[in-house]
User: What shape does this take?
Amino acid sequence: MVFEVFRQERKGQPFQHAGSVTAPDGTFAEIYAREQYARRQESVALWLVPRDAVSEIDEFPDEFEMKYRRVDGYSIKARLHEARERAGTLDMAPGAANE
Amino acid sequence: MVDTRTQEFLEYVQSDGQVETGDWMPDEYRARLIKFIEMHGNSELMGVLPERDWILRAPTLQRKLALTAKIQDEVGHAQLIYRVVEDLGKPRSACLDDLVSGKSKFHNVFHYPTKTWGDVGVIAWLVDAAAIVSQKALLKCSYAPYARIMKKICWEESFHILHGRDVILTLVTGTEEQFALVQEALDRWWAPLMQFHGNQIPAEEDPMFVWRIKSQANEEARQQFLDGYVPQIRELGLSIPDPALRKDEETGTWLYTEPDWDDLRSVVTGHGPASAERLAFRRLSREDVAWVERVVLAEAA
Assistant: This one.
């Protein structure tokens, strides 16, 4: 069996994929993962997941062009320029119109 | 003739694209990956044998422990690397079979005997330094699972260089006999070290570069090694056994006596001074521990 190994480097940090081990069962996988991914105290915790239990999604079609959900869906710069031009505040440093 | 899909794949990897295990890949790419990564795994596994000979003879308890830990690291690297090969389609048992039968290769530097404790220091310092130059370049390998484990491997290798340097510094600051041990070891290892990164094939003609399995030319790796380590060797008062070795200040490249490439070919095909003995040992230990595998698998079934 192949087990995917995720390791956490310090408390509070995300678990990151480190590699995998082959083992006949979970107990051996635990021993191998300890030896291969934590023997120099480089990890504070490990997650072992049987490869079959991992489902991967790697296609994210955007049929409806939902750009309003993304940063690139907004063009602030051009419109801000237009607004400042209209207000006559182009010479001022941005955000300086306090008075 | 390259088909469109392969052509697109080539363009993808050549513009720094990375490939995952489940992605489509041309057969030639897969075959080259397996061969290259398998040889790396073999080298890690065979590389512990010259050092193993010195566990019992290491001068102090501290050195014995450090050497044992280094050996465990290298075997660990072999495990990680064979795992990558397995996902590409070749089981670890097949890799080990091909290794002991002499069908697959391992790096030239592991075909030589370790005559003295000086050799152990030179291996841990300079052979590991040469290896880390190649391995750092593999951090950019187009095959992502290999590039990822290389991070852990490079981290541990830099640790080994530290250990090697410490051994060397102890010897060169010791008695005259100790200093001589290092000089003699350097004299023995210089030729294999200069052969280590391979012939001067230009990057564009090297299929390993074309597929971006390697990210630099052989010569580039050797130049990096020389740049980093010649000054470090010389500052200890050691002399490098190549009268032609010097840096051309105008071009910034190192000039050296042409390494003996026929010798390299003969060594890596199993005709080095310690090749037969090392393979015989590996074969024996594989037979010796076969019962463990049988018991474990039966237990788990």
